[in-house]
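EI: anyone free to look at a 120-residue chain?
SC: sure, send it
EI:
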Amino acid sequence: MEQIDYMRVGIGLGVVLILLGAFYWAMKYFAGNMRVGKWRNGQRIGVIELAPVDGTRRLILVRRDNVEHLLLLGDDGDVVIETGIPVVKTETDATPKAPMFPSLRMPSRDPNKDGASGAD
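SC: here you go
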């Protein structure tokens, strides 16, 4: 029976992990900016939506100072489709968002809340 060379196994595992990391980085790099629609306080410019049209072109909605612009980006050139789209504030923009983590408290049960009179 042959003896296992742990040094070769460790080096092979390390090479595989490095290749997986390089593949992950390449996919993230070529996919573009996936942080779309998240705004920070004081931010003036950002990508709102991104939609692929085909393998080489994509539509991008960009917001700058409360005005949106629709762009078509591709290998053969970039085209401004529409500019000066006003941003309309909706009620959902003003409402506070739900907390990140759900509450673990059980809701209280009020017998009179669902219309029961209490008399059997």
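EI: Residues 8 and 40 are 48 Å apart (CA to CA).
SC: 👍
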